Amino acid sequence: MNHLIFLIIAFPLLSGVSLIASSRRVREPLAGWIATGAVGLSFLTTLGVFITLLGSHSGGPSHAVTQHLFDWINVGSLHANVDLAVDPLSITMCLFVTGISTLIHLYSIGYMHGEEDFTKFFIYLNLFVASMLILVLGGNMLLTFTGWEGVGVCSYWLVSYYFQKDSAASAGKKAFIYNRVADVGFLLAMFIIFFNEHTLTYSKMTAHMSSLTLTMAVLALLFAAAGKSAQIPLFNWLPDAMEGPTPVSALIHAATMVTAGVYLLCRMHVVVSASPTGQWVICGIGLATAFVAATIATSQSDIKKGLAFSTVSQIGYMVLAVGTGDYVAAMFLMVAHAFFKALLFLGSGSVIHALDGEQEMGRMGGLRKYLPWTYGTFLFGWLAIVGVPPFAGFWAKGSVLDAVFGKSPWLWAGGLLTALLTAYYMSRLFYLTFTGSARFTEEGPNGEAAVAHPHESPWTMRLPLVILAFCSIFGGLLDLPWVHGYGLEAFLSPVFGSSLVIPADSVTKQFLLAGADALVAVLGLSIAWVLWRGRSERPELTPAFLAKVWYWDNFYDTIIGRPATALATFTAEVVDPLVLDGAVDGTAAAVGGLATRLRKVHNGQVRSYGVGIIFGLLVILVSFLVVVG
Amino acid sequence: MHTFPYLVVLLCIPLFGAGLVGLVGLRSPQGARLLALAATVVELVFAVALLVAFKTHVGAFQFESTHTWMAPLGISFSLGVDGISLFLVLLTALVVPIVILGTSVGEKATGYLAWLLLLQAASIASFVSLDLMLFFFAFELTLVPSYFLIVKYGHERRAYAATKFFVMTFLGSAFLLVGILVLAFQHENQTGVLTFSLAALQHTTLSSGLEIWLSLAFLVAFGVKAPIFPLHTWSPTTYREAPEGGSMVLSAILAKLGTYGILRFNLTLFPHASKTLAPLVLTLAAIGVLYGAITASGQHDMKRLIAYSSLAQVGFIILGTFSFSPQGLTGAVTMMVNHGIITAAFFMLIGWIAQRRGSFDTAVLKGLQGPVPVLAGVFTLTMLASIGLPGLNGFVGEFLVLIGTFTTHRWWAVVATTGVVVAAMYLLWNYQQVFHGKADAETEKMSDLTTKECLTIAPLLVLIVLLGVYPKFMLDRIEPSVHRELAGITAAAPAAATQTHHVTFTSPVGGAR
């Protein structure tokens, strides 16, 4: 299978490119099926490669396979080739990325029904998957960066998919620019590492640098990750990105692309682990983001925005886990989160679809009766993210909090408080949407149209919901705490080593920690029930400060946006034309009254001068050619 | 050694083509157009043949030919091409036929075509001259057709723009001429031989003060042409007022004469001074990167926006050149070619938009993606290449420049890296203004790209992707010449005595000095 690794990327890439070429002829629904089939094939190839790797896993000398495709950028000591590297870490990513992508492609066939640009949507989606897989499989930082930028561009296209809407166009641009800001971190990290290690290839990195250099490298990487994975200080593009169609939010802005920053930090674990200072900063950013985003999520009225902040918060947990050095916990939560968050987003998409595009939870309620499949599956997604045992989220978040406790009880307390908030806001979202009385049957106060009979979605949308619900229920089996030697931890150990962190030592302690997690989950769920049962609006619980994202956007606008715009206008309208060019014209005037002549160009002086030169030169040249020829 | 005289042929085709086009055009404008097209296509074929015949992994000049010419004055007709100039020759051969196919200036096009061909001949002559005086002739000769292209076929303020362009670049050239003469006389004093040959003059012994003055004289001439901040002020007006074909040639090819001149002549002839002046030039380059990008953000006119964007891109090229690192220099050469391709595509697309909608102004243009999706897609690809998306051609040079500069001049690289963000900002903002949103009635009537237009721009798009995915065939030819250039600088640098040692024994080309 090892020479077929490239097919994992080739299937979606070829499908995307051939759909571009035939976009005028191939339309709904064929384009959707082609795209889905290509990603499905990619998933099957990944499975094949995975099984081959498992075969070589036990006792085999190599846990990593590299497929060299072609030379790329080789200058001097810089060698960055198109090498695809399969190891337990990258194949884990590939499996869930291609798996969930296949489901979301299938879902989109139903969801995007009737859209004018149906084919274009699937082109973007295919290209996204191909880029994401390049990101994951890249054997060096530069190739990862290529995928990294590719997913950014596809995200830009998909967020501004409804480009005629100004808010969608602006949101796409905002997402791109925030990611571009973070790219400075990625580029600087590459420069620092190349300068010190003379390589960008992951397998050759040693982290033999001074501690200051290491810290700089880790901070640069963290900055890069903060952009892609929507962490403080670059997190506020993600809620805007919800302007994209909901399958996009599920695939790109919940399950896959936004976890790329965490993946990068895991991929660079050699460097990250070597810098204790860097690790503390990572912990701080992760926890702060988890907490801040959770507070914001409590006060959102738009179902997708609520889920978006939940994603930010959950990725905060993953970053926190990376900071503790427990990369396996980070990966575990990443995979589990991909299952339940994709499920929640697709479920919300099903709701939005049923309500003709309504996203305000104030206009929902009581949907349990109308949308049994959506309700039934969403239920498990909710229980999973809240952290109720025995669903996937409980185990995954538990393993993160275990690791955090080992690092510092204070961090752990912060993580637990955030878990309480998580349980609360997710339950509020769930109750507002599915329980209580239906608030959409009558026309809304702002003229929202009434929806008499919301319809359950077609099977192409229900099937992915069911599969993801199944994964959300049983996802915990990937890495149960008392099973050693089989789960994710054992599988990933060739990459990260077997024991990077001292686990919470005694069984009693483990049970106490797990008990605290479960308790907090139930507590949050109950508080939400008490506060929100049968209510749809409680302004005192959703303060503007939280609803408006801690005024983060306004802050950036004041300190960066407006000054930058003013500066651009100033240089474009004053500095360049008047000061610099004015100096040129002024000098000219001073030297020889040139300015006067500039205004009288039509008198032909310059022109005749030019003709003089050209004839002189021509005569010389031709005479030469005659002599030589 | 008898090899096919590619370089002479490459000079003669457009030169005589220009004359023939002028003559034929008197009778039949249509015939002139076909002739011009045929000439440039044949030129392109020979340029590709040159690429095929070019020996990879050789750093020295190839296809060298020297003929005596005005021997009493020491001027020789000496030509040669190496990895640094090869792709600029190809770029010149590629862009001109695309300009002829993709742009039009109405009925009286004969002059336009003849000037374009002459400009092509002069540009190629500049890139392959190994004699400083011959270079100077060719370099000056480019001014004339450029001037006429602008003043005869440009937009409203063409006269002002053309004069400004002419006067500024001509003043710059005056410094160059004086510099060349002083250098040649200095060489004559030392050796008794009056020559303008690059190979001979680079062994001239110069006092450090004189070397710096000469270096500055060259820098001013090339800096105006490139343009380097703050000598750029002619460029926004000129690019704006020139006909689109003129803007394409000016920014894609003529600007490269400046950056090429610095790399070829400043670095070769004045290695000490280049090192001494590096902090100054690097600072100007970094300022150019940021200043160009910020000023571009404030533009309402698409052509002016691309002009300022070019200023930023040239900043990167200069940065790489003065990084004195193999990655930086290779990146600079790569970027000259790639920027040429991208900017030519930009100006052509903007011209096509204006043809349909009658404006370059973002206040007028809105919602184009709906009525003209193919044009929007092509524009997007060009924009992404310009932003520096990996996998497309713009990235390769930019990345090499930055990583190379980081290894030798860290803080300048850090500052320039932030320019990468601003580039994304102004281009995306521009794209949103022009292509997103709802189209008005006038815009709705716009027609999408015709098949002919698609085919015309296709070569540029193919190269944008190809040179991004597989830049190796370019890098493999550029790098040896860059190493040769660097070996020359290192060997000459007084402070780098130990490195000289290193080069002499380990580099296959270092010993040649």
Q: What class do helices, strands and sheet pairing of chain A give?
A: mainly alpha
**Nearest-angstrom radius of gyration of chain A?**
28 Å
The DSSP helix count of chain A reads 24
Question: How many DSSP H or I helices of chain B?
Answer: 21
Query: Biggest interface: chains and residue counts?
Result: A-B, 68 and 82 residues
User: How does the overall form of chain A come out from the CA principal axes?
Assistant: globular
Structural features, described:
- The complex is a heterodimer of chains A (629) and B (513).
- Chain A is mainly α and 629 residues long.
- Chain A contains 24 helices and 2 strands.
- In chain A, strands 1-2 form a two-stranded antiparallel sheet.
- In chain A, helix 6 runs antiparallel to helix 7.
- The termini of chain A are far apart.
- The mean pLDDT of chain A is 87.
- Chain B is mainly α and 513 residues long.
- Helices cover 75% and strands 3% of the residues of chain B.
- In chain B, a hairpin with a 7-residue loop joins strand 1 and strand 2.
- The C terminus of chain B is likely disordered.
- At the A-B interface, strand 1, helix 5, helix 6, helix 22 and helix 23 of A face helix 5, helix 6, helix 7, helix 10 and helix 12 of B.
